[in-house]
Amino acid sequence: MIRLSNYPLWGGFLFLVFIVGCGPTVQEQEEKRPNFLLLLSDNHYFEHLGCYGDPVVKTPTIDAIAAKGVRFTNAYCAAPSCTPARAALLTGQDIWRLKEGGNLWSTLSKDIPTYPDLLEAADYHVGHDRKGWGPGDYKIGGRDRNPAGYTFKDFSSFLAENTGDQAWSYWLSSRNPHRPFEHGAGITSGMNPSKVQVPPYLPDTDEVRADICDYYYQIQQFDQEVAEAMKLLTEKGLAENTIIVVTGDNGWMMPRGLANLYDFGTRVPLIISWPGKIRGNRVVTDFVSLNDLAPTFLEWAGLSPPEAMNARTLLPILTAESEGRVIADRDFIVTAIERHALCREGGLGYPGRAIRTDSFLYIENFHPERWPAGDPPLFGDIDLHMLQDKSPTKEYMMLHKDDPMVKPLYEQAFLKRPGQELYDLTKDPYQMINLAKQADYQSQKESLQQRLASHLRATKDPRALGEEPLWDTYLYVKEADWVGKPRKEAQEKFGLKATYPYR
């Protein structure tokens, strides 16, 4: 039920209805509940947009939205994995509170409310295209539609079905820049690979630069999708009353990115714009989670978020005039991973929790005896996990693992890790020097351990409460993934067998 007290514009709206008595006025039309357009990329690290400073990728439409909106530089997904990250965004909850929803290729129980569920109950028109929530099987969880809303061919079809002129909420759920890429497309499109900024955790080679250019090309395709959506909004006369959110579900598909608790797996772009209603051209450094979008959307719609949503509304930031660090206690974020791809014997995951502040990243790996990148020789938690399609950077590192320039990078990305990792971000922004055992850093490590443990207990993480964790046993619905099948080229290149069973 709508709580009008949470939406201050409704007071003026009701007063006009009382005075005029009949017929919609211009003022009433302007004060309708807002629409929400979530423009979501797939596997997109935060730095890789023009407005975030990347010198190669060209994203003029997104840059224009950022110029009129609020650009967050410390936005994180809940987990470096598609399904749980999207589930957390929808539910406004940490992944350890979502049972099966904390895993890739599982389900999300109908008993866990999502913001589209609640908006629909308040007479919003809700929908998405393509993946939305997923990958997984929502029917197993007792749902009759995707948790992101009803599925449509595209944004235009969604708007056309809204014949009742309802307020609406829509996910444009792009596939870009998810692999497989169009190989060679980046350089062919005119990108200069010499200008690519290769992070030091990857080898700086022609192959890697070309691979990054192909990834950039896919981001530019996403920018074109955003442009088409914005054009449609304008043509339909909906732009003025629509809140625009541009973000990505998790980090990029490179070694140490996707499925890792380093920034490269969890830090995402986030831009929120509503010209005329929130002050634009601002850069905010507060630590925020994509989970925070759920209560934010609900409050903007005049609804009270349910108690189960333990995320924090962004409205105090968005309605402020200031930039930089707006809310003083938004000075850390906690992220998590359970089972990503099915790539270890017995279907085991590589569970961990992390706390990120301005100065440090601390990670706890609960099973350091397991392979973080997945069992060799496929290392299936990196990139296209079965080597079923080309993964140039991953394959270059595997092929040159004994090269003195590549070996330390290969070991960090592919081999086993200790139970604790600590990185001093003021000296090591790329998180390559683990200080967890350094005597000079024990006080910082203990402080972060305590802060992380306190947060996990307060939010009822089973691992922090001593309860039996069940994520390794939850259903993984893509049955074909129980057998790894590298493509023939990869078999020949690395001397692989045709199949690798994980049961």
Helix and strand topology:
Elements (H helix, E strand, L loop, with lengths): L8 H12 L5 H5 L4 E7 L18 H8 L2 E3 L2 E2 L5 H10 L23 H7 L3 E5 L20 E3 L2 H7 L6 E6 L11 H4 L17 H30 L6 E7 L14 H4 L3 E4 L8 E3 L3 E2 L3 H8 L14 H4 L13 E6 L14 E6 L2 E6 L26 H8 L7 H8 L5 E5 L17 H17 L24 E2 L3 H7 L5 E2 L2
Parallel strand pairs: 1-6, 1-7, 2-9, 3-10, 4-5, 4-6
Antiparallel strand pairs: 2-8, 7-8, 11-12, 12-13, 13-14, 15-16
Task: Give a summary of the structure in a few sentences.
The chain has 503 residues and is α/β, with parallel strands linked by helices. It is built from 15 helices and 16 strands. The chain folds into 3 domains: 1-31, no CATH class; 33-327, Alkaline Phosphatase, subunit A (3-Layer(aba) Sandwich), CATH 3.40.720.10; 335-501, Arylsulfatase, C-terminal domain.
